[in-house]
Structures are given as structure tokens and as C-alpha cells.
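Hi, here's the filled form for the chain we discussed.

Project: internal
Contact: R.S.
Residues: 440
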Amino acid sequence: MPAVMWFRRDLRTRDNPALLQAAAEGEVLPLFVLDPRLWGPAGPSRRSYLTASLRSLGADVPLAVVHGDPVRRVVEAAREVGADRVHVAADYGPYGHARDLEVERALAEAGVELVRTGSPYAVAPGRVTNGSGEPYKVYTPFSKAWADHGWRAPVDAPTGVTWVSLEDTTDVPETALPAGLELPEAGEAAAHRRWADFLDVIADYADDRDKPAVDGTSRLSVHLKYGEVHPRTLLADLATLRSAGAATYRKELAWREFYADVLFARPDTARDYLKPDYGRMRYDDPADHLEAWQEGRTGFPIVDAGMRQLRGMGWVHNRVRMIVASFLVKDLHVEWQHGARHFLHWLVDGDLASNNHGWQWVAGSGTDAAPYFRVFNPTSQGRKFDPRGDYVRRWVPELADVADPHDPSADDRDRVGYPHPVVDHAEERREALDRWEEIR
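And the returned structure, exactly as it came back:
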């Protein structure tokens, strides 16, 4: 009998165990459901990238795209082609996990089985636990247990597949990007090209990854987000390398899996505090400075450069993500959820677990062992990681010819029309620590 391959966060043909399993059973309907509950909240970056990725996958397989509630549309698709099994990669996100349970019940009532094979991770969330059988709460012991657990080798793409189709499908939506926003090329082939290019410079990754003016990171986060490449594929290549850069990059992949594991164990932390005490801290009205932060008009050059990069690329360098997040939470005293929402709206690689727990890490309310007293000084951070000011000058072009782009003089600010700082960092750092003392 035919089988349904329901694509979600696995928009690829290579190293896709669920697709391989479906193809082993006979004819395959490749299906994607445009879910209003996911499409609606997605910002312009993710909507545009998803549609481009679907078109890329559709060039390799005759993808049937339908729109609506997956609980209804997946059952209808299985019935139309006479399938008795629907294959998926397991989803461990709060919404995706609950949705799949509903779809599974509806399929069972129709006499169809939902088969989960693999996941978007090398090690599925919930698989690695401590000696008491509990989820890890700190990255370092998790990463060691994760590496000890290991993962399967990548699998090849299926060959000789007979595809089936639906009579009534939806065209992939046309999406328009706001002026000035440019996204990377989407698709499985683009992901593998990017990975191949990065392997040429990965030996320098440990040194270059914190330099926002250098193209020293993999930029694979968006491809991992949509499953255009699987982390297992990357880890297989990394296993053959012995450089410090390769070892550091593997640790970054472990961070992605750690945050997914934390969110699976505590789905409430997608919106609420992992450490509830931080919810009692005094925060300011976001109306005071949130818009200036969002638009890159705070008067702190490295912060403004990062926020403008977000609007220009749908992506921000990781070091700069930490700087701008620290500034919002600890200089402007705005709760982390406001920043996390803004990032998810614009980030092309917006991943709920990595984004929101990254924000909690900076806010001190997450998994970080060093709590709230870490307050990034945006000026010294800029000078340390962007010493020549190339990054700032690119994204804050008003400062291209000032003497010190990380701390321009008042005269230079007035001359080029760049704002004066909205706050005094030293004063706000003391205020942040005072507020922290109140909840200790």
C-alpha cells in the first residue's frame, strides 16, 4: 500500500530516515501541510525562507502542499491515496509534540498508523538523562553524556521511488520581503554548499567565531532549522577532523541539542522563566526604550549594528546576539520575552528552543551557571570583538568616518546624525545588580 511522508522540519532527501522508511514500503505521497498555527505567527523572514525551501524540495520530489489543520488534512491525504501508514520525524517542540499526538489519534480512528523515525536532532530530546533519570539542567554534563550516547551514521537518499500525488493541492504561497531584507539561498543543495565552504575554514572557527566582521561562522543555523541538512551529517564530517575549530563547532551543535532537551522537559519555559524567582524582579515599561532598541537607535554602536543586521539579513552574529540581549535586559531593564519575540519575528533561523533559552541564558534566568551579575559592557565588547570597527561601520554607516566608531564623541554624533546614548551603562549596570539583590 502507499505510504505518506509528512515533511515538517526535514526538508531534504539525504539523511532522512523517515523518508527512507516510507520509500521501503512502496509508493510514497510526499506531503507538506501549511499549518495556520505556525504560518500565522511566523515573521516575514521565516515565511519567505520556508516557501523558498519548499520550492527547492519540490524540484526533487513532487511535493503535495495543502493548507489547514494537520489533524484533518493528514487524515484526508492518507485516505485519498489509500495509505495505511504516515511517516514523520518526531517533533519535540511544545506545539509539534501535542499536534502529533492529536494527529496520531485521528489517524488511528481511520485505521492508519503514525510512524516516527528519527528527529531533527542527533540525539532525541529526553534520551540523555543524569544518574537519577532526570533531564540535565546544565550544559557541560549534558554535552558529555550526549557525546557518550552517540548517534547513528547518516543514511543515503532513497532511489527508485514511485511517487503518488493528491488531486487538490495548494500552491506554495508567494511571499514578499520588506525592503532592505535579504535572506540566504534556501534548500538542501545550498545547505551542503555552505557546509563545504565552512569546512575549508573550520580550523579557524575557535578563534574567528566571536568576530562579527569576519565570515567565521557556519551560518548553518537556518539550514538546521528547516532540516535541509541533519546534524548527524555534520557530525560525521567533524569526526574525521582534529582541529580545535572542529571540536568547538561540535560543542555548538551540542548547545542546540541541549536547549531542545531543556524545552522538551520544561515546555512552559518557551514563555516563562526557567528559574521562577526572576519573574519577581522589577522590570521597566518596555515602551520607554524598546522601540529604539528594535530599530537600532540606542546610541550604542555595537548594539545598533546588531539590531540593524537583524533587519537586513534576518540573522545576527551570535556574539552580537548576546550583547544586544544583555543590553535590553540589564541596561534597559526590559523582560527577556520582549526581546525573544522580536527576534523570532525577524530571525530566519528563529528556533524556539535555541532562541528563547539563549535569551534566558543572558537574562540569568536560564541554564547558565554564572547568573545575573554578568552584564555585557557594549562599548568594551565592541572594541574587543570588532577592534577595527568594520562590523559597526557596515551596519551603522553614519559612523563610517568617525574617529572611534565604538564610542563616538558628542560632536561626531551630532555631525553625522547618530543618537546620543539612551542610558548611562555604568549606572544601569549598578541598577541591574541592585534589582538582582532584591530577589536573592
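Let me know if anything looks off before we file it.
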